[in-house]
Amino acid sequence: MNVQEALYALGVRDDTLSANEKQFLDENGYLPLPNILSAAQIQTIRARMEQVLAGEKDKTGSEFHQEPGTIRFANLVNKGPQFEICYTHPRVLAAIAHVLDNDMKLSSLNGRFAEPGHGLQALHADWRGAVAAGDYQVCNSIWLLDDFTTENGATRVVPGSQRSGQTPADAMSDPRAPHPDEILLTAPAGTVVIFNSHTWHGGTLNRTNDYRRAIHSYYCRRQHPQQTDQRHWVLPETLARLNDAAKYILDVHTGPYGQVKAAEAGSAVL
Ligand SMILES: O=C(O)CCC(=O)C(=O)O
To answer: Which domain does 77 fall in, by range?
Structure first.
């Protein structure tokens, strides 16, 4: 199997994204895809994340990274079938494939809930340095589990910055400060916003009394190490329910994998 075959098997076709959508993504470095999750799917995912949190407690997110003022979830691949859509949805995969020239695998599948009064991040790119325009190595998608509003810590992006050949740290004296060209990704829950990870972006301050909940489904070119090494972490029960195309996207198609003990990997059965 190769990437094209995996994407085809998962329903991606040349016209899965329109020409206008591809052009918007190329120019602006982000693309909102409305109505990817139904209200019922959002409820199911939120409920599962509550369960994961209740089971993992202060270890939640510890397989990858914890961030003060947020709840971070890590490796949702192992945390239930509810999250499979985040690495198999054809519209999302088509957009990621467009940015990464059909050379892609999942890098990590994490969650980020910004707590009330927290969530501001410096503008950043999800890569170690600047790249030339077009030489993109990584691409992210943010799955809105709440409406993103001007008040609740919606992600900010600087449209077109992926083509600047600079990172925010190169170009700004204070990347935590507002950028004159930034926009807020406000959209209803169920939207997925693709953002080229070289587009400058970051979480903003959540000024409400509720969490702002989202999932990040993050991809890299196949030559790069994954943020979450699925060959190490994947559980046998995860492998057992995935088809070959989904396994290819996770880079666990050649096996045998799934040997790590459930206790270490964060068991799907909590
Ligand atoms: O959750 C968000 O709004 C953005 C998070 C982000 O960019 C990150 O954690 O690197």
So the answer is: 3-265
